[in-house]
Each structure stands twice: as C-alpha cells, then as structure tokens.
Amino acid sequence: MTSSTLLILSVLVSSCLSISIEIGNLQSVAVNGTLLCNDKPANNIKVKLYEEEAILDVLLDERFTSESGTFEMSGSKSEVTTIDPKLNIYHKCNYDGICVRKISIMIPPEYVTNGEKPARVYNIGEINLASKFSGQSTDCFN
Ligand SMILES: *[C@@H]1O[C@H](CO)[C@@H](O)[C@H](O)[C@H]1NC(C)=O
Q1: How far is the centre of ligand 1, averaged over its atoms, from the C-alpha of 2 (Å)?
Q2: Beta strand spans in 3-99 (E)
Q3: Taking the domains of the chain in order of start, what are their residue ranges?
Q4: Domain range 25-139, CATH architecture
Q5: What's the 9 CA to ligand 1 centre distance in angstroms?
C-alpha cells in the first residue's frame, strides 16, 4: 500500500467513526445534592455521573464534594434513545473495610433535557451516608 492510500483509508475510517459518535440526539443532565456522614458534612467524597450502557458505562463527569458536603455535576451525550444517567457515590462513612462503599442512584428520565444545556437539576437532597442502602456495594476500581 502506498502512503497516499493509507492516508485516504485513515481519513475514511476516522470520518466513519465521528459520524457514528454523532448519531442520535444530544441530551444533557445535571445532578446536585449534599452528603452527610453521621449528620456532619461529608467533604471530599468522590461522585461520578455515568451514562449507563449495556457493555460499559460512559463517564460524563467526576467531582469531589465541597467542605460543606455539596456537589454539582452535569454532562451530555448523544444517543438514539433517552439516556440512562446515574450518580455513583464512593465513600468510607462508618466503613473501614478495604476499598470503598458505592451507592448508585438512577436519575429519572424527566430530568434529561434535549440539547446541550440541562434545563433542570436533579436534586438528590441530603443523603446521610451512614444509612444502609439496598443498592450499596463494595468497589475497588473507581
Ligand atoms: C441544587 O440545585 C438547585 C436548583 O438549581 C438549587 O436550588 C439547590 O440549592 C442546589 N443544591 C445544592 C446542594 O447545590
């Protein structure tokens, strides 16, 4: 193969890739809230916003809670169907085992906006991480 054929091929491949990525409607979502541990603000807690996919979830945003335990995240993604965003919280409140405790919270579809800017914020309110959650698991890779 000549180098010009290779160039044409790689241009073709990359344009196909970018087309497939842009298929669907651009949708956006925002989430915020306050995390507590034993009624005190839980600061520096890792929170992640994911789009749930069949194979591998796509990370949309990642933050740490503030001094007062608050956080706010947002992200957008193109999908043919409505996106399935979820919030993951990774904490060690009342937990001294290995790794961290993970809490997953699905964001309702009513809070997904068509377009780049989220029209509303899904406010999870105050969550006390000391509580027992049914959706809680241990996570070592985050
Ligand atoms: C979350 O967002 C709502 C709406 O923008 C706002 O009123 C509220 O104060 C925010 N909460 C936090 C903890 O940032």
Answers
A1: 58
A2: 25-37, 40-41, 46-51, 58-64, 70-79, 85-91
A3: 25-139
A4: Sandwich (2.60)
A5: 49
Helix, strand, coil share (%) of the chain residues, nearest 5: 15, 45, 40
Angle at 20 between CA 15 and CA 25, to 5 degrees: 125
Tokens 């996919």 map to which residue?
A: 53
Instruction: In whole angstroms, give the CA distance from residue 142 to residue 140.
Output: 6
Contacts of 49 (CB under 8 A, 6+ apart): 29, 31, 59, 60, 61, 62, 73, 74, 75, 85, 86, 87, 88
Which ligand 1 atom is nearest residue 30's CA? 2
pTM over 0.85: no
Q: What is the pLDDT along the chain (142 residues), one digit of tens a residue?
A: 666 766 666 666 665 555 555 678 999 999 999 999 999 999 999 999 999 998 899 999 999 999 999 999 999 999 999 999 999 999 999 998 899 999 999 999 999 999 999 999 999 999 999 988 877 889 998 8
Ligand 1: residue of 121, 122, 124 to mutate (most ligand atoms within 8 A of CB) is 121
CA–centroid distance, residue 73 to ligand 1 (Å):
11
